[in-house]
Amino acid sequence: MEIVNIEAGTFREMITSIQLLKEKLENLKGRPTSKSLDDWMDNQEVCMTLNISQRTLQALRSNGTLSFSQIDRKTYYRRQDVIRLIEKGKKRKSR
After folding, report:
1. Which of 56, 16, 35 is nearest to 85 (CA)?
2. Residue 26 pLDDT more than 70?
3. 0.70 exceeded by pTM
4. Which of 2, 70, 75, 90 has the most crowded CB, counting CB atoms within 10 A?
């Protein structure tokens, strides 16, 4: 077991910081979030909605056409971004 010595003042500052962080987390925990999982789509949903392949979806991500977020190895897209992409495509076809 390793023992680390620190000054008492430094230790008190650490305790105070940890307590402030704990209070902030408790405050955040009670707040309702405006975003739900319904606001996000996975690869399969986007491919089905846009009627495109996984490779085409990868190209849309790579060239910045469609923004995304990743959690671990799973990729998610905001539903409003997919809808915006559909509307952009409709405008191009109507020209």
Report:
1. 56
2. yes
3. no
4. 75
